[in-house]
Design a protein that fits this description.
The chain has 457 residues and is of the alpha/beta class. It is built from 16 helices and 16 strands. Strand 8 and strand 9 form a beta hairpin. The chain is elongated and about 130 Å long.
Length: 457
């Protein structure tokens, strides 16, 4: 929002009788004040945003020194210089004019009929008008900020007041706290805000410094309120995961308290669990700021995110910003199954494999078709289905049919029990299944039944 007159505005005013000698590219610079000085070092007394007015008594005659005069003035933040056409100034050298062009430093000539005080009053009048507008904007800023029921996260009202777009971003996650997310443009400015965790204000154009100071104060208060709510949601999610995984400990810590409160996060909706190696605090905050009521906590040595199935399309990209490797559970409906879902996600998480969904082994039911039987045999027996391992396969099936009686199986096979033990060890090495472990035994028996289905006479 422009709040000052520009050098070009002064040149364009016919009353001021001022023309441009060099430095045309700097005519858009704002002039905060116009000051007369005949000192040989006016940059000591003038500074940022001021226009130097001189009769030229302080200008050196040497071309190189004149060029240096322009350079020093530009370095001090002086936005331009006008020389009175009164005959007191030395000839302005080509070196001086070329330096002004190079630096975009407007070098002006003001006619004898225009006193410098007229230029000063023109700048002052414009500045006073801008200050008046600034006071009005500040008044409306605080009126709007005090309105009850307004959406804290919207910043469109600020655009309506100032003509600029703003947003507040959380530093560690890059998530939008207030206003639109992402970059506001190549010309946007960043200003740190006093919040916890740290945030910064993005502004897509210059603002009057006074308005900017007050705007930062208003937005820091709004941002802190939004952050506090997001942090509370993140803590709640971690507590919910802990409660779901260890309900007994939760009841002991909170006697008479309610069970896991699914309504806050996923309600009665179906959900999935996503597992990533680390980044719990960042994930929890970014999901909360994005408005997803997901739970984030740690279990099985990794970070778990419990998300409603219908939110997954929005949640997954945020999780991917933290880790390229993600394990995803099956869809579940009951909160009592969170523990199982967590184990599924942890099992699916594999370094270097990217996004992997948990696929259960189809061995929980008897084979219902030839296709399913082949799948069971392939997954459980593996190499044992090959002809070269026929002896080991027959040994395994004999042990199973003997109800794990090693003596009876050895007699049926016509071998010593020591040889039987060696064969069972080979079977375990080839398949990864041990007949003395109940889960493995179940899979092996179902594979035996599937084999029988495939090879029935």
């Amino acid at each position: 929002m422009a709040t000052h007159i520009t050098v070009g505005d002064l040149v364009a005013d016919p009353i001021l009788n001022t023309e441009v000698l060099a430095g045309h590219s700097g005519l858009e610079a704002h002039v905060r004040w116009a000051q007369t000085s005949e000192a040989p070092d006016p940059w000591t007394w003038l500074g940022e945003g001021e226009l130097l007015m001189t009769l030229g008594l302080n200008l050196p005659h040497d071309p190189a020194a004149q060029a240096g005069f322009v350079r020093r003035a530009r370095e001090a933040g002086i936005v331009g210089m006008t020389v009175g056409d009164d005959g007191y100034a030395p000839d302005l050298s080509e070196a001086m004019l070329a330096t002004a062009d190079l630096l975009g430093f407007p070098l002006l000539l003001t006619g004898h009929s225009t006193p410098f005080v007229v230029i000063s009053r023109t700048v002052a009048a414009a500045t006073n008008t801008a200050q008046g507008r600034g006071v009005l904007v500040l008044s409306r800023l605080y009126q709007e900020a005090s309105l009850r029921g307004r959406d804290l996260r919207s910043t469109s009202w600020i655009h309506g007041l100032t003509g600029v777009w703003v947003s507040v971003m959380e530093q560690s996650t890059g998530s939008a706290v207030l206003g639109p997310g992402g970059e506001l443009g190549a010309e946007s400015r960043r200003h740190p805000l006093d919040t916890e965790p740290a945030t910064y204000l993005q502004v897509d154009a210059d603002l009057d410094p006074l308005i900017l100071i007050h705007l930062k104060q208003v937005l820091a208060t709004d941002a802190q309120a939004v952050l506090r709510e997001a942090l509370d949601a993140a803590r709640h999610g971690a507590e919910q995961i802990s409660a779901a995984l260890d309900p007994a400990a939760t009841r002991a810590a909170h006697p008479g308290g309610a069970a896991v409160g699914g309504a806050h996060a996923v309600g009665q909706r179906t959900y999935r669990v996503l597992a990533v190696p680390d980044g719990a605090s960042r994930l929890a905050l970014s999901l909360a700021l994005a408005g997803y009521p997901a739970w984030v906590g740690e279990a099985q040595g990794v970070v778990m995110v419990v998300s409603a199935e219908e939110d997954l399309d929005g949640v997954q990209p945020l999780v991917q910003e933290v880790s390229v490797d993600i394990g995803i559970s099956q869809v579940h409906a009951r909160m009592e199954d969170v523990g199982a879902a967590v184990r599924e996600a942890a099992d699916a998480l594999t370094t270097g494999k990217g996004i992997t969904e948990f696929v259960p082994e189809p061995v929980s039911l008897l084979a219902r078709s030839v296709t399913e039987a082949r799948q069971i045999v392939e997954q459980v027996l593996g190499p044992l289905q090959e002809e070269r391992h026929t002896t080991l396969r027959v040994t395994l099936f004999t042990v199973l049919e003997a109800d794990l009686s090693m003596q009876r199986a050895a007699e049926t096979l016509g071998i010593h029990r020591q040889s039987l033990g060696y064969r069972l060890k080979r079977i375990r090495d080839l398949t990864g299944h041990n007949v003395h472990r109940v889960p493995d035994l179940t899979r092996l028996w179902l594979a035996h039944e599937a084999w029988s289905l495939l090879h029935a006479a």
